[in-house]
Design goal:
The complex is a heterodimer of chains A (280) and B (285). With 280 residues, chain A is an alpha/beta fold. Chain A has 9 helices and 12 strands. In chain B, strands 3-2-1-6-10-8-11 form a 7-stranded mixed sheet. Chain B has a 4-stranded mixed sheet with strand order 7-16-12-9, with no helix packed on it. Chain B contains 7 helices and 16 strands. Classes of the chains: A alpha/beta (280), B alpha/beta (285).
Chain lengths: 280, 285
């Protein structure tokens, strides 16, 4: 059975998500040397990074997000585009900071798996729903699509077919399933939660009792800080050593690190990884 | 082979507070409740011998007199305070100064009222401190004792420390010493606003580092719960294991409400009221 990590990256006028995906691929290469990474994109991958990817896959079925700044309308296509029997989907603004090979053994027990517990940089379970009121007020399962897994199978295909339907008709489905705290635009997390509700399958696709697979979520208002913070990087330092180990505010980060702020990707961090991997 | 075990108290008077008196008082309670020998580290040996029955102490460990520029305010309830030197810079040396293989290090204002800490000596853990704590007022914000600052690492209390003499603990105490020596660096790196050196902070940083810059279990939780009152509260009376406190009323400066405890060991930060209570007890004897 083939397995690998897949990321979908679409640049907009402001942000270079392909660059983030390249950084993510470098982080995988440092910590998980035998893990394949593929990128789904219609943008150009810089030549020096191409070798990091197993496959560079064009977005299938046309680009449905060409008119969007926040390009999420193609995300349901990941299932169809993935070249692997088992796929771990990650957001581009993530880094893999440890060997996660044991996670695959755990995930293999599922057909689809979504993380529903995430952690602060101080390794506390996030319980604050500041960014997820819609889940609380509509009693939706607290799924994070930023890190999820699927096997090529009938159930996952059905799930993703529903995800396509919800994504393409989000106002209709959100009115039915997420009418409280109705958002201005769709979110993959909410759409996946709605699909989970439609299929009544939360028990099959998540596990509230396990600490991993999960990620460190750096959105500032869930870090248990008393100060009202807009950007987490204004408050805690970022330290990266020559082995590409990262500390945030003196806390060594492990697992998967979801930095969330695009300006986290500095030349210094890229250089650290490039030097470590001899990417020139 | 019998392993030596005992408690260590540090008492360095500063002209405003009589830590030797507090230590003498606490030593009697440690012997009563925990039943272990108690040693004192002090620079005030003559005063100790002249004013108290120093035979209560197993060892009297002399300390050369030093002054300090580490000054802080010591409150006596909400309306009064005195500024005095805060002579707290030898806690890291206790590892070497302690005559015991297994040491229970306590602040002199930690009033023992039960035998819970006795079980440290039966534990397999080599280093134990309090991380979780409980303000007996139950009305104040306790977050300052969750992390050493809003963005920084978990708070560990250096008020009570149980340790065995192990290579790891020797490294730990040396690390505390190093942090103390480079305090201005560490306090900035760990985002501590005040320049005042605090052992709680230095020990917390050292635990964090020993845990590999992550939360971990290098320091285990001491048995029992760490109850405390701040120096804006007043210890009103102490009889055997019962204490009566006047707790500051939130948003009503100068007003208090009463809280009584029984059988709880409590960190009494208002040392002036502690000393008054000790004096009251001495008069009653």
């Amino acid at each position: 059975m083939s397995k690998g990590i897949v990321v979908l990256a679409q640049n907009n006028a402001k942000d270079d998500y392909v660059k983030q995906a390249c950084l993510l691929a470098m982080s995988v290469a440092v910590t998980n040397t035998n893990t394949q990474v593929s990128i789904i994109t219609n943008d150009t991958v810089p030549i020096e990074y191409k070798e990091l990817f197993d496959q560079i896959i064009p977005i299938p079925f046309n680009d449905d997000a060409s008119h969007e700044d926040w390009k999420i309308s193609n995300r349901w296509k990941i299932y169809h585009a993935s070249p692997y029997d088992e796929t771990l989907v990650l957001d581009t603004d993530m880094l893999v900071l440890q060997d996660i090979s044991a996670w695959w053994d755990f995930l293999n027990r599922y057909e689809i798996f979504f993380t529903n517990n995430v952690y602060t940089y101080r390794d506390n379970l996030v319980t604050n729903d500041y960014y997820r009121k819609i889940f609380t007020s509509n009693n939706l399962p607290n799924l994070y699509t930023g890190l999820h897994y699927f096997k090529k199978c009938n159930f996952a295909k059905e799930f993703y077919n529903w995800l396509e339907l919800v994504s393409n008709n989000w106002e209709l489905f959100y009115t039915q399933y997420a009418k409280n705290d109705f958002p201005l635009c769709p979110s993959m997390d909410v759409s996946a939660a709605i699909v989970s509700k439609i299929l009544d399958c939360d028990d099959k696709i998540t596990n509230n009792k396990v600490k991993f697979p999960s990620f460190t979520h750096m959105k500032p208002k869930i870090q248990n800080w008393s100060k009202d913070v807009q950007q987490w990087q204004d408050c805690v330092g970022v330290y990266i050593n020559k082995d590409c180990e990262i500390k945030i505010g003196n806390h060594k980060q492990n697992g998967i690190f979801h930095y969330t702020e695009n300006n986290f990707v500095t030349d210094e961090i890229i250089e650290r990884y490039r030097n470590k991997l001899h990417v020139y | 082979m019998t392993v030596s075990k005992g408690a260590i108290l540090i008492a360095r008077n500063n002209g405003k507070l009589d830590y030797v008196k507090q230590a003498f008082f606490l030593a009697k309670r440690i012997k009563h409740y925990i039943g272990i020998p108690v040693s004192i580290i002090t620079e005030d040996i003559d005063y100790l011998n002249d004013s108290f029955d120093s035979s209560i102490f197993d060892h009297i460990i002399p300390l050369e007199y030093t002054n300090t520029t580490n000054n802080r305010m010591f409150f006596d309830g909400t309306l009064a305070y005195k500024t005095a030197s805060f002579k707290n810079d030898i806690r890291d040396e206790v590892y070497n100064l302690s005559p015991y293989e297994e040491t229970l290090l306590l602040d002199t204002d930690y009033i023992i009222s039960n035998d819970l800490l006795k079980s440290c000596f039966d534990s397999k853990e080599n280093l134990m401190m309090f991380k979780e704590s409980y303000d007996i007022s139950k009305t104040r914000d306790e977050t300052e004792f969750t992390y050493i600052s809003d963005f920084s690492v978990e708070f560990y209390w250096a008020t009570v420390v149980f340790f065995r003499k192990t290579p790891q603990n020797e490294t730990f105490f040396n690390l505390v010493k190093h942090i103390k020596e480079y305090w201005n660096h560490y306090r900035r790196v760990y985002q501590i606003g005040s320049a005042l050196f605090r052992n709680d902070f230095a020990f917390s940083i050292a635990v964090h580092i020993m845990n590999g810059f992550s939360p971990g279990n290098f320091a285990s939780q001491l048995p029992g719960k760490h109850y405390y009152t701040i120096d804006k509260d007043i210890l009103w009376s102490l009889t055997n294991d019962e204490m009566l406190f006047l707790i500051e009323k939130k948003d009503y400066l100068g007003e208090y409400y009463a809280v009584r405890t029984k059988g709880q060991s409590i960190h009494v930060m208002n040392k002036f009221s502690l000393e008054r209570t000790i004096d009251q007890g001495v008069h009653n004897e």
